[in-house]
Design goal:
The chain is an alpha+beta fold and about 500 residues long. It folds into 2 domains: about 140 residues, OB fold (Dihydrolipoamide Acetyltransferase, E2P) (Beta Barrel), CATH 2.40.50; about 250 residues, 2-Layer Sandwich (BirA Bifunctional Protein, domain 2). It has 15 helices and 16 strands. Helix 6 packs across helix 7 and helix 13 runs antiparallel to helix 14. The radius of gyration is 29 Å and the shape is elongated. It starts with 10 loop residues before the first helix and ends in a 17-residue tail after the last helix.
């Protein structure tokens, strides 16, 4: 990198930077524009490899390509030199020869620094050793790199540097570029599946006068034109349900949410989420829809899921358990013993089995502790946990046969939660009572309690049909699809502390 922890260059790094700037001035003195406007007709290196993958060693062709990319390696001397050109799709060897380019252009191409952006035109051939190559007949400097690229052997070993300067991480490691290409293909496949199933993609406000749809602390800002406080959304739920009220019937939004919370391998305050809502459906229908969607996505990617981890299949049906059964099977604790919701009784049962139970935690917080620490890490294969206590789910519809529970499931895979779904609450009076309960929690000091949203209640009073809804964490899904254990590895530019 050539930078210390304070971002200041040392003496050797300064010499390298100065040498590159001298080359920049030299190009201009020769009448060469080091930052031209365009380079037309560019093909990808992958196109060359696809067309000529079987070219015999020593063979030449008359097929011409115009390629552009970053200079990644250079070797050779005298009247011939070999260079490696890298673009998003791969790497290709270039051969530069004085008898083809002439002395001036040959001197130009062989004087370039690693990291410079280069455009070339030439014909395809294979060396005697079978290396697919391009004989360069013309070369154009496309951008002079004024800083050296990461070392080609050690790359970027420091995680902090990789995340803070992601552009260098992308330059140094083709696997990182492929990871983010996989992310893009994943999002495209999700959209394709929903579009093909008659869902409508909509856009709801990111800046909201009242945040809602989850239990979370918001980011707060000031809207100057309206002279009032606004919030970055923590969820899209309430606006999407208003679309259901309006008759759109199947809607989804795929975008950023923001929660003012801590950082962890599974949490980034700015994250990408899919929410979709389907009228006339319940949580069982949504579970089937999720299974079908992720099976489709993994099939579209066309590769085993979870590089570096045991292969995971999203093919339905997934494993299914109730939440109560899942906790009891793994800890021996029955959270609903004697139909009780007493925090003291549950804490005692946990401590009897050697499990941590913090003094002062509510019954719901203790249940959440059991899920996150003792159930979630064990769920490797795609698994759905059904039927949550109402205390954990202020927006879900009451269970049709189990008092005190709601029709909710969470989806887990590779030891992390990836999705959350409900049979949605559509009774406005019941929703008002739930808001009142949340307001009481806020008054008691819960800064993540759901605010009271009168506009949403008025929308429900116009009538919302039976509806199923789901939120899917795109970042976490991509973690699983690419075999990563930290969310920061699948977010291009994650939130970072100051140096």
């Amino acid at each position: 990198m050539g930078e210390d922890s304070e971002g200041q260059e040392g003496p050797r790094e300064n010499q390298l930077l100065q040498a590159r700037r001298r080359k920049l001035e030299s190009l201009r003195e020769q009448g060469i524009e080091p930052f031209p406007h365009c380079f037309e007709g560019v093909r990808q290196i992958a196109d060359v490899r696809e067309q000529f993958s079987g070219l015999a060693p020593g063979s030449e062709t008359e097929v011409r390509f115009r390629l552009a990319g970053r200079l990644a390696a250079r070797r050779g001397h005298g009247a011939s030199a070999f260079l490696d050109l890298v673009d998003r799709s791969g790497r290709l060897q270039l051969q530069a020869r004085t008898d083809v380019l002439g002395d001036q252009d040959f001197a130009l191409i062989t004087s370039l620094d690693l990291g410079d952006l280069l455009g070339v035109e030439g014909t395809v051939f294979a060396t005697r050793r079978g290396e697919l190559s391009l004989l360069v007949e013309a070369a154009t400097v496309l951008a002079k790199s004024l800083r050296p690229p990461p070392d080609k052997h050690s790359g970027l070993a420091d995680v902090e540097t990789r995340l803070r300067y992601r552009e260098l991480d992308l330059i140094a490691d083709p696997a990182v570029r492929e990871r983010f290409a996989t992310r893009a293909r994943t999002i495209a496949a999700v959209r394709r599946f929903l579009d093909d199933h008659r869902f409508i993609e909509v856009e709801t406000p990111v800046l909201q006068p009242l945040y809602g749809g989850a239990a979370a602390r918001p980011f707060t800002t000031h809207y100057n034109a309206l002279d009032r406080t606004f919030y970055l959304r923590i969820a899209t739920e309430l606006y999407l349900k208003r679309c259901i009220v309006g008759g759109l019937e199947r809607v989804y939004e795929l975008g950023k949410d923001f929660r003012n919370e801590g950082l962890s391998p599974k949490h980034n305050p700015e994250f990408t989420v899919l929410e979709f809502y389907e009228a006339y459906a319940d949580y069982h229908d949504i579970a089937a829809r999720l299974e079908q969607m992720l099976a489709f996505v993994s099939q579209e990617l066309g590769a085993p899921v979870g590089s570096g981890t045991p292969e995971i299949s999203f093919a339905p049906p997934w494993q299914r358990e109730t939440l109560r059964e899942a906790i009891q099977a793994r800890t021996g604790v029955d959270i609903l013993a004697d139909d009780g919701r007493d925090a003291g009784r549950l804490a005692h049962a946990m401590r009897e089995r050697g499990l941590q139970a913090l003094d002062g935690d509510t019954w719901a917080q203790l249940v959440d502790e059991l899920i996150s620490k003792h159930v979630e890490p064990t769920l490797i294969e795609p698994t759905l946990l059904f039927d949550y206590p109402v205390e954990l789910s202020p927006f879900a519809k009451a269970h049709r046969s189990q008092p005190g529970l709601v029709e909710r499931f969470e989806a887990f895979c590779n030891g992390i939660e990836i999705a959350n779904a409900f049979t949605e609450l559509n009774d406005p009076d019941e929703q008002r009572a739930r808001f009142d309960a949340q307001r009481a929690q806020a008054a008691a000091g819960d800064d993540a309690a759901q605010p009271y949203d009168e506009s949403f209640l008025q929308a429900l009073e116009h009538g919302m049909p039976p509806t199923g809804g789901l939120g899917l964490g795109i970042d976490r899904l991509v973690m699983i699809l690419t075999g990563q254990r930290s969310i920061r590895e699948v977010v291009l530019f994650p939130a970072m502390r100051d140096k």
